[in-house]
Every structure is written in C-alpha cells, then in structure tokens.
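Handout, section B. The chain below has 122 residues.
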Amino acid sequence: MTDFAVMHPACKSRQAVASSTGLAAAKVGEKAKTSKYSDLAKMESRLFVPFVVETMGGIGPCAKRVIKAVAREAYANRVVAAVSDFQLYAYNRLSVAIVNGLGEAFRVALQYVNGILVPRRW
C-alpha cells in the first residue's frame, strides 16, 4: 500500500529546516503519510510505504527504496541489463513528471489570477 506526495521545501513552514537539512520536506511528508495510513495498513495486514518527492528534485528515502526494489526485480526478470539502468530511467521520468506537474499548477494558477478560469464551487 502506498500514497504519493509532492512537498515544496521552500514553503514558509519548512524553509528554515530545509535550508540546512537535506530532504527535510520529503522526510516530513513521509512521516505524515505514515502516521495517517499505518493503522489502516495494519488493519489490512499490508505494508505501507510513503512515496514522497520534493519540487526541487529531492526523492524521499522510502521512495528511493521502492525504486531500488523495483529495479532489482526488473533486473532479476531480465527486463533491464543492470539495476542502475532502471534506476536512472525511473529518476529521469520522475523528474519530468514533477516538472510537468509544476508547470500545470502554475498555468492553472495564472488562469485564476487573470480571471480566465473560474474556481469550482463544490
């Protein structure tokens, strides 16, 4: 069982810690996700692994372990020639996904600011 999050290390609530500690935002996100879902995972007899990345490119420790485990399986099943091939590909694709997501978020925010897109009312 997993849940994904993208954390922004430069936001005001994390700025001080993130400026002096590597992956501080990702670690905060992992802790929050684990706290939220650990009871549910235990109830369902499952392992919970948070998959957290940072907008500045950092990849949380748990997410790195997931990528490494999948890379080992891909290698063991002869999907890739080396574990590092899969890891490099996964990190590159993840980086592109983060950049694309941020670009889309900024595009939508600019539309709101310029009055082009009206916020939904639930």
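Note. The radius of gyration is 17 Å. Compare this with the example in section A.
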